[in-house]
Structure formats: C-alpha cells, structure tokens
From TrEMBL:
InterPro entries in the record: FAD-bd_PCMH, FAD-bd_PCMH-like_sf, FAD-bd_PCMH_sub1, FAD-bd_PCMH_sub2, MurB, MurB_C, MurB_C_sf, Oxid_FAD_bind_N
Keyword Ribonucleoprotein attached: no
Annotated ranges, domain FAD-binding PCMH-type: 36-202
Lineage of source species: Bacteria, Bacillati, Actinomycetota, Actinomycetes, Kitasatosporales
Name of this chain's protein: UDP-N-acetylenolpyruvoylglucosamine reductase
Active site (catalytic residues): 179, 258, 362
Organism: Streptomyces ruber
Length: 370
C-alpha cells in the first residue's frame, strides 16, 4: 500500500535554487532528443519538489492540460505543440548512504550511473548512457544489456494527483514488467519526485553479466563479474556503436533510442509467427526467441524491422531509420513530427504485413498517434 511521506529527511539541494521560471508560447523541440514538436502555451521549469507539486496542483485546479518533461528522450510531440502547461522537472538531489541511493526526479540518469560506478557500487552499471532523467526510469522500467531498474528500485516517491498527497510506493506496488509499470499504466495519476535504489557492494565488481553481447565485448562468460568501470565502458561502447549515446553532431542520436518495444507473444502466436518466417524467408531461418514467462516468448523488434525490408539508413526524407541500428527512427535535420510518424507507420505496416505482428511504439506521443 502507498503511505504518506513528509519532507523530513530529504537530502539538501546540491545548488542554489532559483524561483520557478515561466515562459509563454515556448518551443518544446529543443527539450526533446528528437528535436521535434511545436510550442507549449505555457512552460514552467521547477527546481524543487514543492515547485513541482504546486505547478501540478495549479494545473489540476484550473483544468489545464499538463505535460511533464524530464530529459525529453522519450517524447514525440506533435507539430502543433501542446495546448496547456508543460512542466520541466529540473530537481536535483543525489544521496548515497552505504548501498542506498536516492535520486531526485530531475537528476540526469547517465551522470548518476557514473557516480554510482565511481563509488564502487553495482546494480545499474549496464544502464549507462541511457538518456533522460532519473524520474523517468521507473515509469518505463528502463532496461538494457541484462539489467532493468525494477531489480534495484526499492521505493518511488510520487505526488498522487487523485489523492492530492505525496506517497511512497514500494517496489511491490509499482507493478513492474517489461518496459511497463503502474506509473505508465495510469499516466495521469502519479508525478515521480524521487526514486530510491538498493545497490550492491561487491568490492568494485559488477553484478553478474547477463547479456551475451556485453559478455562477448568484455571477453567473459555470461554470469561472470567484471570491474564496474569495465562494464560501464563496454556498455557505452556498444551503445555508441548503435547511435544510442547522445551526440549533437551525430544525427543517428537525434532519436528516442529504441522506437518500438520487443513483441511478447503467446506460445500460439509465436508458433504462427515462426510459420510465417519459414514461408517468407525459408525453413532454415529461425527468429530470435527469449523466455518471457510461462506461455510467452519475446522476439526482437529490430530483427523484424530488418527482415521486413527496413534496413539501416532506410528512407529518403528528413526522417529515416538510423544508419547504426534499425530500431531507432531519427531526425536527419529539418524533419517534422509528421515526417517521423509517416516513417513509423510505414514500418509498422510493413512488419505486420510480413510477419503478422503489430509493433508498439515505446516513446510517449503527445497530440499525435501512430
């Protein structure tokens, strides 16, 4: 059950805070990694939990639509923009007590991972390089290279817009699953303020390496441990090679990372999928398959996209598939959101026609849909 939480015990801010900032008819594209989207009627930047809550309450009391923005790495905003208040959560707070970590929602996630690794603690080292803010990580149950935050999150402190109070949700109440959570299932209810983690002190060694590609890069077997810094550096290298580490000079990183989630199929649906693969590509072609719980199998969205004919660099307009990874849709400069969505719809239709699977977008869409 959620329990109330007061402000006592919150870590002191790491910088001098300024009063809440407010702009009107404010561009939102620069606040997203896609660099797409029209303006917001009103843009507020909040630097404390109290400012965040006050802005949310004001919007709720007046019936004004509210858009929360963290790192902007998981947003697709329509070209017409947002008719309401956009709230940038720019809170700061990094508190490490033994193996217990607390992050303010506005903390830059990849910077926090670097600090944790430097402190010699394991559990999130393979989540290095993921763009965005700490507050977004439990919403998406962010994961990569064999780790996901559900394994280390102990509590999420959030403002409950229905109960109109600050609550603390333990891990068991967060309903974590693959790229999903209670917060994502009910996006209008909770505003994440702080996230707490339980890390591991293994004398500077990583958690057991679970992802085969990471293990190969490190030259170890799956299940082995390596120095934390080596694990982090290997993941950063792998991500950079796929255009998944932000670089303003590299248009392959003008994206939301993986645009589609990996499909999870029932045993019956997976058998039908395999039959379509054999009919289309030949009996010797075996699609990727990973256990996803009793009666379910996960397959690869990137594999589906590539085998449906959408290879790296696909497209002729300003929105194209990344030249480094088929799972990323990118803005090559000068694109509009409609350009991006047209490409996404083409990919979805092509994969569905080829394999009978409908891909689901991972980024949140604002004012638009596939």
């Amino acid at each position: 059950m959620a329990v109330r939480m007061g402000s006592k015990g919150e870590p002191a801010p790491s910088r001098t805070l300024v009063p809440v900032q407010e702009l009107h008819d404010a561009p939102l594209a620069p606040l997203t990694t896609f660099r797409l989207g029209g303006p917001a009627d009103r843009l507020i930047t909040a630097t404390t939990d109290a400012e965040v809550i006050a802005a949310v309450r004001e919007a709720d009391d007046s019936g004004t639509p509210l858009l929360l923005i963290g790192g902007g790495s998981n947003l697709v905003i329509g070209d017409k923009g947002f008719a309401g208040t956009a709230l940038v959560v720019a809170t700061e707070g990094f508190s490490l007590d033994g193996t217990r970590l607390e992050l303010a929602a506005g903390e830059v996630w990849t910077d926090a991972v670097a600090r944790v690794v430097e402190a010699g603690l394991g559990g999130i080292e393979c989540l290095a390089g993921i763009p965005g803010s700490a507050g977004a990580t439990p919403i998406q149950n962010v994961g990569a290279y064999g780790q996901e935050v559900a394994s280390t999150v102990t509590e999420v402190v959030a403002y409950d817009r229905v109960a109109r109070e600050t609550v603390t949700l333990p891990n068991a109440d967060c309903a974590f699953s693959y790229r999903h959570s209670r917060f994502k299932a009910d996006p209008g209810r909770y505003v994440v303020l702080r996230v707490r983690f339980a890390l591991e002190d293994a004398d500077g060694m990583s958690a057991p390496v679970r992802y085969a590609e990471t293990a190969r890069t490190l030259g170890v077997g799956v299940g082995e441990r390596v120095p934390l810094a080596a694990a982090r550096e290997a993941v950063l290298k792998l991500r950079a090679g796929k255009g998944m580490v932000l670089d303003p000079e590299d248009h392959d990183t003008w994206s939301a990372g993986s645009f589609f989630t990996n499909p999870i199929l029932t045993d019956e649906a997976f058998a039908a999928f395999r039959a379509r693969v054999e009919a289309r590509l030949g009996a010797g072609v075996v699609p990727p398959a990973y256990p996803a719980g009793d009666g379910y199998t996960k397959t690869s969205a990137a594999w589906l996209i590539d085998r449906a004919g959408f290879t790296k660099g696909y497209g002729t307009g300003p929105a194209r598939i990344s030249t480094k990874h088929t799972l990323a849709l990118t803005n090559r400069g000068g694109a509009t959101t409609e350009d991006l969505l047209a490409l996404a719809r083409e990919v979805v239709a092509g994969v569905r026609d080829a394999f009978g699977i409908t891909l689901v977008n991972e980024p949140v869409t604002v004012g638009v849909s596939l």
